[in-house]
Amino acid sequence: MVPGSQRKSAEAARTAGATPLPWSQLGTLLAVQLAMPVNYSLIQPFVFEMVKSFDVVRSPKDVSFYAGVLFMSYSVCQAITTTYWGPLSDRIGRRPTLLMGLAGDLVTFVLFGLSKSFWWALAARSLNGFFTGNSAVVRSAIAEMADDTNRSRMMALLPLVWHVGVMGGGAAGGLLADPVRQYPGLFGSSELFRTYPYLLPCLAGSLTTAAGLAVGLFRLKETLVRDPPDSAPAAEAGETTPLVVAAAARRPAARPGRRLSPGLLTPVARRVLQTNLLMYLAMMMMTQTYPVFAATPPGDGGLGFSPRSIGFSLAVAGVAVVYLQLVAYPRLERRFGALWCYRTGMKVMVPTFFAMPCLSYLARHIERLAGDQQARLPQAGVERALLWALLVALILVRITGDVLAFTSVGLLVVNIAPSRTTLGAMTGMQQLLVACTGIVGPLVAGTLWSWSIKHALPYPLNAHLVWVLCGTLMALAWAHSCALPSSVNVFAA
């Protein structure tokens, strides 16, 4: 570990000579990236009501299982394709790979909004996952534009965009779902939205994708450096030169479908990816469980929220995320390193998982006070205000840990890549692990949630079960990360 005085001196020198951020291309990449979290989170506020309307659901307590299958299908297709998107981008370039993904994302998300059956929704969500398997390509492109003086600042913007997109998508999903019921004065006569109550939020999400596609098409430049042909005169280099100029000779780019080199998986790389796997598994389970938990009646262990309230709860931490990403994280990373931030973030999140299901007891008390009516929308009163205050506090604490851990893991994965020409393969490998957790996490969480609320068993086998499992997995990820060396704080390529 670098002593504090030496670290401060090194960081002061690095900051003093920091390369300015290439905002034109960086902003374009972030606009491309924004579409992915928006479309990922936009369905969360209304997925409970949407699945409940399908004929395949026989009992409200089965909704969590089928919602988990929808989330899982997205990740299954990501896992199938993610090992091809990364090496493909190493071969044909980052730009065409990203544009292909955005075009497919645009079409498939509209198809999801047209769902009238579970099987249609499943097919559309699966296709959507197929085209979003290239999200790791954005990280590779940003890493290629960066150097040692500005890499952490540039990488810190990716989780910021992700969190802003997740919160914006969640809010839009809650506000725009079933507009005929929510806004009868405006949409009451619309047969289109009466027939397809969840089309409007999907159209709104598709606009974000269309904007990212347009910006990428006209402004995005290729970041992947290629060896120029021997016959090309040096004078031709200029405005057509890629954003990154390599100083060393490069290996041939990986081909799609080619096996990843065993040299990528050093012992340190394996441990980073293993902790990443445990952390993402906990978060994928939480991500699938929270909207279902929030929509489930308090008597069954939930909060009894409407889609609008769920969307609001997803958006509530927006200001905090901007501060944490742009101000707090860069300072903490410069002072303590990405590894410290990674471990601290996981430690901070652990208690929030164990505390979240306890809010159901307060929601149940509020429901009893309201008589037979379900307490769905935020109401005036001390009890309701207390419930929201506690929920917001837990969300803010979790978001703090989320920002620290997930921003850091992006840096760590980039840092362990042996060379720039393997960045796509390394980030693709990490994206594959994330997709695998997206397969297992939602299915396990949905199945366990449905099982736990059907059986009146004591703690921790009641509605706390999934949350306890999430907290345990996150604690294991933190413990496993304690064996990582400080060398992962440095870009190896």
TrEMBL record:
Principal subcellular localization: membrane
Gene3D superfamilies, per database record: MFS general substrate transporter like domains
Single annotated GO MF: transmembrane transporter activity
Keywords: Membrane, Transmembrane, Transmembrane helix, Transport
Domain Major facilitator superfamily (MFS) profile, residue spans: 25-493
Membrane topology: Multi-pass membrane protein
Source organism, top-level taxon: Eukaryota
Gene Ontology CC entries for this record: membrane
Coiled coil: none
Compartments, record wording: Membrane
Transmembrane feature ranges: 63-85, 97-114, 154-176, 196-218, 277-297, 309-328, 386-412, 432-453, 465-492
Protein's recorded name: Major facilitator superfamily (MFS) profile domain-containing protein
Lineage per the UniProt record: Eukaryota, Fungi, Fungi incertae sedis, Zoopagomycota, Kickxellomycotina
